[in-house]
Design goal:
Layout (H helix, E strand, L loop, with lengths): L6 H30 L3 H36 L4 H28 L1 H8 L4 H13 L2 H17 L9 H18 L13 H28 L15 H34 L3 H35 L3 H37 L6 H14 L2 H17 L4 H24 L5 H28 L5 H30 L7 H25 L3 H15 L1
Helix pairs in contact: 1-7, 1-10, 1-18, 2-5, 2-6, 2-9, 2-10, 2-13, 3-6, 4-5, 5-8, 6-8, 7-8, 9-14, 10-11, 10-12, 10-13, 10-15, 11-12, 11-13, 11-16, 11-17, 12-15, 13-15, 14-15, 16-17
């Protein structure tokens, strides 16, 4: 059974670990941008890195872990010996499948590079890095599966530190890359083979370290992963369990792949792979810290409620997750919308010129409205997966991908002047909003009235406080610009961002005393307690 600890306390443990992991991940991204810039070499690196990340985020990191957790949660209701044997066989089968998928991905690496990148040195470089990066799929699978096992056993904080190992390894790799002899100006034709190898191998070794961390934590729980391959029916039990869910999951994955292909093609065609990638990573930062922390804790609890047939608990957990996600992410979205264009220029210095850096911030600011909707969609999909209902998530995802592609095509055809990174990010945010609406009606049809009045009230209170704070911050920043301060230089941008952030936080904190948002207050209490420790 999953212990029913407070969501804020359990999620706070995950959030602290995730915050450190995301902070080092952000530093890694900044360092890579400073070293590679946003030109052809950076596009080749980020484009090749899309291939394994595509499989991880669409299959292993989201769908697979959401499907696996309910299966493992039901297995926990049995005796410990039976549960351990089932988990061992499930892991064995999953690892074999992951190995086959990885081998297939590596085999098609040349065709992936040829499909996305035009002929030339950039295609050759993308192909080389694709060979280096695609083995990551196997280690992503190990990390995702082991993390699911740990979460079901109520171990949330320890596995959340795993990405930290990955980020630190890549940061060291960037340092080695800089120390290597090479050309003054990086280009796909001038970069040295040793530089290509070091950056490619180091990035993959980071994922190996992440998987290794998870395995160490699993062993410390007392679980022993044994290779059980006894002939039918034993080995087929986990296969049959997963196969029942596979059909619509495949539809989900195919739809997602189509969306990624369109986005990546448009980004490569318009030389915007890196600007879009960096903007997308900035948006993913608060989602990873807040939403992933809450969803990590909620998923086993939802699976447990479904296993016991407690519909009231399912609706209650859904409302609880919705309240915390919206109350916390709406202020973050407001902060991104106000501060991102200025802050991005300060962050992405070095090889990234001010225009491209500002474009990254504009893409983040324009698409920040989709951040709360993204979290709600992920919550809704996990509720469906906990009930072994894979059809609804697949259909919702098909709808979201269709909306995203439609917006991209309309943007390219009707308003070609819109920067590509902005268009791609906004298309994703619009698709999340549509998906959240569709998911709400789908869950309401399945579970009846969800009682989302308290969720709406929490969102309204958080939105009101955020709107006033954001407008005040914008007014202050506009006032600074009106007083003829030079805000185009480094010092001027520091002043602008600092003033906006300080005033915004002050107004937000003051208004929280008047317009109570209990969800934010509880999280702040947890953070203060963690700092005191």
């Amino acid at each position: 059974m999953i212990a029913r600890t407070g969501l804020a306390a359990s999620g706070g443990q995950v959030a602290i670990a995730t915050l450190m992991s995301r902070a080092t991940g952000f530093l890694r991204t900044v360092l890579l941008a400073a070293v590679l810039g946003v030109g052809a070499v950076a596009d080749a690196y980020n484009g090749a890195n899309v291939f394994p990340n595509m499989v991880y985020s669409l299959l292993l990191g989201g769908v697979l872990s959401s499907v696996v957790v309910p299966i493992l949660a039901r297995s926990r209701l049995r005796s410990r010996a039976i549960d351990d044997e089932f988990v061992q066989r499930f892991l064995n089968v999953s690892v074999v499948v992951a190995l086959l998928v990885t081998a297939a991905m590596v085999a098609v690496a040349p065709w992936l590079a040829d499909f996305f990148v035009g002929a030339g040195a950039q295609r050759d470089l993308t192909r080389l890095w694709a060979y280096c990066f695609l083995p990551q799929v196997f280690f992503y699978a190990i990390a995702a599966l082991v993390t699911a096992v740990l979460n079901v056993r109520a171990s949330f904080g320890a596995p959340s530190w795993a990405p930290l190992a990955n980020n630190l390894i890549v940061i060291v790799t960037v340092g080695i890359f800089v120390a290597l002899p090479g050309p003054t100006v990086l280009s796909p034709s001038s970069i040295s083979p040793m530089q290509v190898l070091v950056l490619g191998a180091g990035t993959t070794v980071g994922i190996v370290g992440q998987a290794g961390w998870c395995l160490v934590i699993l062993r410390r729980t007392g679980f022993r992963w044994r290779w059980r391959v006894r002939v039918l029916p034993y080995t087929m039990r986990p296969i049959r369990t997963g196969a029942r869910l596979a059909g619509w999951v495949i539809v989900y994955v195919i739809a997602s792949q189509i969306g990624v292909v369109v986005v990546t093609h448009v980004a490569f065609d318009r030389a915007s792979v890196s600007t879009y990638t960096y903007a997308d990573l900035l948006i993913a930062l608060p989602y990873g810290v807040v939403a992933v922390s809450i969803l990590t804790v909620l998923t086993p609890r939802l699976a447990n409620a479904v296993s016991l047939g407690r519909l009231g608990h399912i609706r209650a957990e859904l409302r609880l997750g919705g309240r915390y996600l919206l109350a916390l992410l709406i202020p973050i979205a407001g902060a991104l919308a106000v501060l991102a264009p200025t802050a991005s220029v300060l962050v992405f210095g070095g090889r990234v010129d001010a225009t491209d850096a500002s474009l990254i911030g504009q893409a983040v600011a324009a698409s920040a409205f989709g951040l709360p909707a993204l979290a709600i969609v992920m919550l809704q999909l996990r509720v469906c997966y906990c009930a072994d209902e894979t059809r609804t998530p697949a259909l919702i995802n098909v709808l979201m991908v269709a909306v995203k592609i439609l917006v991209i095509f309309i943007g390219v055809a009707v308003i070609p002047a819109v920067p590509t990174a902005v268009l791609l990010c906004v298309s994703g945010s619009l698709s999340y909003v549509v998906g959240a609406l569709a998911g709400h009606f789908a869950l309401r049809r399945r579970y009846g009235l969800l009682g989302f009045r308290r969720v709406a009230e929490a969102a309204a209170r958080s939105g009101t406080v955020t709107a006033v704070a954001a407008l005040t911050a914008v007014a202050v920043m506009m006032g600074i610009c009106q007083f003829s301060f030079d805000t185009t230089g480094f010092a001027g941008r520091i002043l602008l961002a600092s003033a906006g952030a300080t005033v915004g936080v002050a107004v937000f904190t003051y208004l929280l005393r008047i317009i109570r948002v209990p969800e934010i207050s509880r999280v702040m209490d947890v953070c203060r307690s963690a700092i005191r420790r």
